[in-house]
Amino acid sequence: MALGRRDVLQRLAATFGAGFVFPALAQGHPMHAHLADAARVAAADGPASAPVFLTAQQLEALTTMAETIVPGSTNAAVAPFIDRLLAVDTAENQKQFLSAFQALSKDWLQLTEPQRVERLTAAPPEPFREIKGWIVGAYYSSEIGMRELGWTGNMFYAEFPGCTHADRHA
């Protein structure tokens, strides 16, 4: 049974707390506020029929950019999720996203995969961090991303996977 982002995040927050799950996501990044709001996550999660905030071409570029940054992002529906979150975000956050996205996505769809990697590698830090924050937050809030981090759907671990300490944390 596939779980929605809201279900996954609620279970994780109950078990670990969101700060533990997303420590790499900058505290001031807008994705923090989104992921902390279950209603907003629930509204943004689900099947995408058409772009809400981005244009179709921007959504396509974001989809391939997300896949380049975090492989598996397409299956986790990262770009449509970000699009729906942006639609309900503040004008300031929307402007900041679009500014960073435009700095990275010029002619993006015409680039080959090696050229895309080169573009992201040479990108100015601020735009890259902004976009990466959205992508990483969206990916690791999905069931696919959480399972990649070791989440099994259980509310607790009887023992920590891969732990080799003698006391086994009992």
How do the strands and helices of this protein lay out in sequence?
Blueprint: H1 5-15, H2 18-21, H3 30-36, H4 38-44, H5 56-69, H6 78-87, H7 91-105, H8 113-122, H9 125-140, H10 143-148
Provide an overview of this structure.
The protein has 170 residues and is mainly α. It contains ten helices and no strands. α1 (5-15) runs antiparallel to α4 (38-44), α4 packs across α6 and α6 packs across α9. The longest helix is centred in the C-terminal third of the chain and has 16 residues, at 125-140. The model is unreliable at 8-21 (pLDDT under 50).
Query: Helical element count?
Result: 10
Order of helices and strands: HHHHHHHHHH
Computed over alpha carbons, the radius of gyration is: 17 Å
Largest sheet: none
What gross morphology would you assign?
Answer: globular
Report strand %: under 5%
Average pLDDT over all residues: 80
Instruction: Provide the helix percentage.
Output: 55-70%
Low-confidence stretches: 8-21
Number of strands: 0
Structural class: mainly alpha
